[in-house]
Design brief:
nine-stranded mixed sheet; alpha/beta; globular; 487 residues; three-stranded antiparallel sheet; Alkaline Phosphatase, subunit A
Length: 487
């Protein structure tokens, strides 16, 4: 500890030749202690970057709170709010009421379209698939083949009918953004099995979802745990390849020098924790240059695999590539992979819009689940599908079945899970006969988040981080595991 830092410098005593020490203020003492701990933390972090598998690395594998089958998670986020009524939760009653007038009386009525409202039947037929007889929209041709791996949950509720705030709540637990994403909490609690790849990878489509990168941010957790988005076209990560003529030996020397300079700077400015995170990012980028190209290059995959995921077909190519990449990333040891697919906000032309969206995801998702099972990875990989909210049984537009769509609905939505210790081939919970509200096994999204952590071996009440004077957690105020979803 340097003398200038804590004001403990020796000063002459006017009445004697003995050197005396002025009493430090409480602020000086605490700051000095912080300096010592901060320097030690930075030094440890830099050494961990030199040896990425060292136990001191912030992303080194950690022991879960309890035994669990799931070691990794793939989140398939359908941004825009897919209609549960038209995918996994059929409502025959709506056929009787189709285009008859209805006026909502609940607290969300003022947020919907003004004027008269009309019930809307599903434009799709449903069929029973798998040994369990799962009700599935007829548009899902391929998913029917893996239906017995699915655990469909119909009892979920959220708080918001606004896209950005609902996306934030589903992905971070906080409607207003700024908190860590589920993937960030997962990597904070479990670390990563591969120190040469990001622990939390995001695979968006061309445009980011509503709310942007805050959907996969690290929030108040250290920056190491934020999601790393890979671009869909061109180089997945900008500047991944070294500049022309620059050799790895030169890069390594530059990073070593930068680490030395930053260590000295951090000793003088211990409150600037971003330095350590930035250095960790540089080191990770250096290691990624060697490993990422082999993971993301799909040209070396055999034609059977490409065909399985629908790669090369216009409707399925984009999502198929991302599903295959998600499988490869998990296979390589990445802890959390999240795919975003938009276009589900069907306020009108429901049949046309949902048909297109389902055909985009159907074959790739079925291939992903089947491929994970073939490789022996499904049991250890939790796959989660869903959007930010459900849809209403009625709409303010009257123009016949070809035009009608559905509004937002926070009180009834459907998600499904596969692998990772869930109760395969089951339907849990139910909505009322119109699909307007959940009525069985009803749980708030905080309980769903607690359940996801539990399936990954993490206890929400133990996975905490001290911030702004209190220990914070994903569920905000605590929650309960939805036991009906567990095998």
């Amino acid at each position: 500890m340097s003398a200038e830092t804590v004001s403990l410098a020796k000063t002459p005593d006017a009445t004697s030749n003995v050197m005396s020490y002025p009493h430090p203020s409480r602020r000086d003492l605490l700051y000095g202690l912080g300096l010592t701990l901060g320097s030690a933390a930075l030094s440890s972090l830099l050494k961990a970057d030199e040896k990425p598998n060292a136990a001191t690395s912030p992303l080194a594998p950690k022991t879960p709170h309890h035994p669990a089958k799931a070691k990794a998670c793939i989140s398939l986020f359908m941004e825009g709010g897919p209609s549960h009524i038209d995918t996994f939760d059929p409502k025959p009653k709506l056929a009787e009421l189709h285009m008859t007038e209805f006026q909502r009386q609940d607290k969300f009525a003022s947020q919907m379209a003004s004027g008269k409202r009309y019930y809307v039947q599903s434009p799709f037929a449903f069929r029973q698939v798998g040994q369990a007889g799962l009700a599935l929209c007829e548009q899902f041709e391929h998913l029917a083949g893996v239906a017995d791996e699915l655990c469909v949950y119909r009892g979920l509720q959220v708080d918001s009918v606004d896209h950005p705030t609902a996306c934030y709540q589903m992905n971070t637990g906080n409607r207003f953004g700024g908190d860590p994403a589920v993937g960030a909490w997962t990597t904070y609690g479990l670390g990563s099995e591969n120190q040469n790849l990001p622990a939390f990878v995001v695979l968006p489509e061309g445009a980011y979802p509503q709310g942007g990168a805050a959907n996969w941010a690290s929030g108040f957790l250290p920056a190491h745990f934020q999601g790393t988005p890979l671009r869909e076209h061109g180089s997945p990560i900008l500047d991944l390849a070294p500049a022309y003529g620059v050799k790895r030996e030169a890069q390594r020397a530059n990073l070593d020098l930068l680490a030395e300079l930053n260590a000295a700077d951090a000793a003088r400015n211990p409150h600037h924790g971003e330095v350590a995170a930035r250095m960790a990012a540089y080191e990770l980028a250096f290691r990624m240059q060697a490993e990422v190209p082999g993971i993301i290059d799909l040209s070396k995959e055999d034609q059977r695999t490409l065909d399985l995921y629908g790669i090369g077909r216009e409707a399925t190519d984009s999502f198929g590539r991302r599903c295959l990449l998600a499988r490869k990333l998990v296979q390589a040891g990445v802890r959390f992979v999240q795919l975003f697919e938009g276009g589900w906000d069907s306020h009108d032309y429901l049949e046309r819009a949902h048909t297109q969206r389902i055909k985009t995801i159907d074959q790739p998702i079925a291939a992903l689940i089947g491929d994970l099972k073939r490789l022996g990875l499904l049991e250890s990989t939790l796959v989660v599908w869903g959007g930010e909210f459900g849809r209403s049984p009625d709409n303010g537009i009257r123009g016949g079945g070809q035009v009608a769509g559905r509004d937002h609905n926070a009180k009834a939505m459907c998600v499904w899970l596969a692998g990772g210790g869930v109760k395969a081939g089951h339907v849990v919970g139910a909505t009322d006969e119109l699909g307007a509200s959940a009525v069985e096994a009803v749980h708030h999204v905080r309980d769903f988040h607690v359940t996801l952590l539990h399936l990954l071996g993490l206890a929400d009440n133990k996975l905490t981080f001290f911030h702004e004077g209190r220990f914070k957690q994903l569920s905000q105020t605590g929650g309960q595991v939805i036991r009906e979803l567990l095998a």
